[in-house]
Write a structure and sequence with these properties.
This protein is α/β, with parallel strands linked by helices. It has 11 helices and 10 strands. InterPro entries: AKR_Detox_Biosynth, NAD(P)_OxRdtase_dom_sf, NADP_OxRdtase_dom.
């Protein structure tokens, strides 16, 4: 396992982030014993980022994580999130305003059995709370020593850019990371979010890198696919490339998420040690250029306006020498 810096901070974070969304769910989730085996294997491999949220399993994920980290808390970069409602009947029990942030943080600290959160994520953009209120409240939590770094998940690029610009102007703590879905089946962040994150120096935690399991499934036997649910051209190519490289489909899909930007850290939630080992092997897989081209062609992704337009007209706008100007 190698490490990179979280955003523009000095915090060292592992290449792979461990998601714990399934921890603590009574039906279909991981038992505490299974979760411990996965987390221990992740730690043995050098992984150090544990990601949860206050509403996963109605708080049970945080409780399980707190139990699993007992006696070794300092070895990990512990991350959790707030925004989602704590009481559906109370309009102020959800959102990114101060009244929800403060009790959400206190509850998470108790469940996680810790005095501070390493990375506190805004879980989703709240259209009704001014950014200044959110950023100042988060900065207060940092200054109080209850949070070390902050990040934001599931928000437009312009919101993140505005938030960090505001933080810079006012001397507040800026976002160091961004969480967003990213996979061969969902490349939307390449339009605005990923370029924005690179410009601001943000770490990108890519959730759903396996397309919620679709990119890791074995091939469908001939004749078994339903006409109403045919195999995706992307999954077909993923399996072809995997066969050629002697890798698993999951390894190919995960390796691809790391090809376009060093800012990207896959965020996965393996349910077994075997699944985790398969995931860890993706860190050592280098995809050939022709394989990357085949995979991306299969997605049919286009960046759209303005990126494609600017790329098309750049030679005529900037002259014959434009292609010889190197980016920083």
């Amino acid at each position: 396992m190698e490490y990179r810096l979280l955003g523009n901070s000095g915090l060292r974070v592992s290449e792979l982030f461990l998601g714990t969304m399934a921890y603590g769910y009574p039906d279909g989730g991981l038992t505490e014993a299974d979760a411990r085996r996965v987390l221990d294997r992740y730690a043995d491999a050098g992984g150090n980022v544990i990601d949860t949220a206050n509403f996963y399993g109605d708080g049970n994920s945080e409780r399980v994580v707190g139990e699993l980290l007992a006696g070794r808390r300092e070895r990990f970069v512990l991350a959790t999130k707030y925004t989602v409602t704590r009481d559906a009947t109370d309009p102020n029990a959800a959102g990114n305003h101060r009244k929800n942030l403060v009790p959400s943080l206190e509850e998470s600290l108790r469940r996680l059995r810790t005095d501070y959160i390493d990375v506190y994520w805004v879980h989703i953009w709240d259209r009704h709370t001014p950014l200044a209120e959110t950023m100042r409240a988060l900065d207060d939590a940092v200054r109080a020593g209850k949070v070390r770094y902050i990040g934001i998940s599931d928000a437009p690029a312009w919101i993140v850019a505005q938030a960090n610009t505001l933080a810079d102007w006012r001397g507040w703590t800026p976002f160091a990371g961004l969480q967003a879905p990213y996979s061969l089946l969902r490349r939307d962040i390449e339009r605005e979010l990923l370029p924005m994150a690179e410009a601001f120096g943000l770490t990108v935690a890519a959730w759903g890198p396996l397309g919620h399991g679709a990119l890791a499934r074995p091939p469908v036997p001939a004749g078994a696919a339903s006409p109403d649910d045919p195999e995706s051209p992307v999954t077909v190519v993923v399996r072809e490339v995997a066969g050629e490289l002697g890798a698993s489909p999951a390894q190919v899909a995960l390796a691809w998420t790391r090809t376009r930007s060093r800012a990207v850290h896959p965020l996965t939630g393996p349910r077994t040690v075997e699944e985790l080992d398969d995931t860890l092997s993706a860190l050592d897989l280098t995809l050939p250029a022709d394989a990357i081209e085949r995979l991306e062609t299969a997605t049919g992704f286009a960046p759209g306006f303005p990126t494609d337009f600017i790329t098309e007209v750049e030679p005529s706008v900037f002259g014959d020498m434009s292609g010889r100007v190197l980016a920083r």
